[in-house]
Amino acid sequence: MSVALIDIGIGNLHSAEKAFVRMAEGRQPIHVTADPEVVRRADRVVLPGDGAFPACRRALAEVPGLEAAVLEAVRAGKPLFGICVGMQLLASVGHEFETVEGLGLIPGEVVRIAPSDPRLKVPHMGWNDLVVTGSHPVLAGVATGDHAYFVHSWHFRVANPVHRLAYVEYGDEVTAIVGRDNVVATQFHPEKSQATGLRMIQNFLEWRP
Predict the structure, then answer these.
(1) pLDDT at 9
(2) Strand, coil or helix: 172
(3) Which residue in 161, 170, 179, 182 has the most C-beta neighbors within 10 A?
(4) Which alpha helices (DSSP H) does the chain contain, by range?
(5) Comparing C-alpha atoms, which of 190, 191, 186, 189 is closest to residue 164?
């Protein structure tokens, strides 16, 4: 068993790598990689992302064969975990700065957070309590009221409500976790979300769709 942690050269993956290594406890090697062959050989794939949707989307597409390897892994039934902008890339389309097609693995669009309360600032930054609305093996032991750490200005508006597994209240319902088949993803950073995030990472490493 091995895990490919995709490195598209945007953002520091040290914290994510450290969290996955910790929860793998030596049972599954964690490869930080942009090599399509390493992704193809891996049993699980993690797709993180930082910054803006268009930049991450282009960075993924610019590595020859990498996007195809990620999609092949999903089609082969391998578990995939998207994190932050990595979650947003799973959507059909993103509207940050410009309209850019996503990977289309979970139908929906990435839209700007628009809190109804003008006192709430964007970006949405800091700790917030999850409202869990769906069941999923990666959510085992995670419940409404558990908190996670967010830093974002855009969120995933799913086309099918069944694919939204959790949200947070921030002047509106802001998508926090999505899932479909062998794909699951969080808007928050699990590696920075203490017990809640580490539990989800451990569940992902043990998940067999």
Answers:
(1) 87
(2) coil
(3) 179
(4) 14-24, 36-41, 53-62, 66-75, 85-88, 194-206
(5) 186
Marked catalytic residue, from 17, 96, 109, 191: 191
Beta pairing partners, 5:
32, 46
Give this prediction's pTM: 0.96
Q: Token pair for residue 38?
A: 């390493």
- CB-based contacts of 136, cutoff 8 Å, min separation 6: 165, 177, 179, 184
Cβ atoms 144, 129 nearer than 8 A: yes
Which is it for strands 183-186 and 80-83: parallel, antiparallel or unpaired?
parallel
Fold of 3-206: Rossmann fold (3.40.50)
* Averaged pLDDT in 10-residue chunks for the chain of 209 residues: 92 91 94 97 96 95 97 98 97 96 98 92 95 97 97 96 97 96 97 96 96
Query: Which among 31, 84, 109, 155 is annotated as catalytic?
Result: 84
Is 189 considered catalytic here? yes
Active site residue 84: yes
Task: Specify the pLDDT at position 76.
Answer: 97
Q: Is 96 a catalytic residue?
A: no
